[in-house]
Amino acid sequence: MLKPHSLRAHLAAATPELRENPDKLTIFIANGRIVAGAAASLSFVYRYTLKLVVLDYSSHADAIFVPLLAWLRTQQVEIFENTDLREKSIRFEAEYLNKETMDLSIEIDLTERVIVKPGPDPTSKETVRRYDVTHAPEPAHLGVVHQAEHITVYFEGQQLASWEFPTTEF
């Protein structure tokens, strides 16, 4: 699974508090499933709930959610395009520890397509076969334009987050 590492890197780069202390972010996978059909290949889809927990977080929650939504626009865009998914695919809870810090827990339903292609093993003199495994990129969506941009998020004049990321425009 590649998306958990990608999201961790993105949030750590975008959010000053996580950039300074990346160990405040823990990631878990729950309700994992593998969906495979009766096709000739062994290709499959990972379906899982990604749980992000930010511990002792003292910045504004928008500094997490805005970069998260930007990442999802390129990595799981069907959450925004499908009305049913939009309503239930991103969930969160917060526990205010005191007047300055909180533990923030976020759950996101994600999928990853894995392509498994059989082929001959070029290093074997026998008839041994091998499987080449690749993770499929997210499908292109009509009307989506990617442009590399520097993005900065402000709340009440204070910079909350900043990152280099391909944006999605509709």
Strand percentage lies at over 45%
SSE order: HHEEHHHEEEEE
Distance between the termini: 28 Å
**Average of pLDDT:** 86
Structural class by sheet pairing and helices: alpha+beta
Outline type: elongated
Summarize this structure as a short list of keywords or feature phrases:
170 residues; alpha+beta; five-stranded antiparallel sheet; two-stranded antiparallel sheet; 7 strands; elongated
Concise structural overview:
With 170 residues, the protein is of the alpha+beta class. The protein is 24% helix and 48% strand.
Strand and helix layout:
Elements: H1 3-14, H2 16-20, E1 25-35, E2 44-57, H3 62-75, H4 78-81, H5 83-88, E3 90-96, E4 102-120, E5 129-135, E6 145-155, E7 158-169
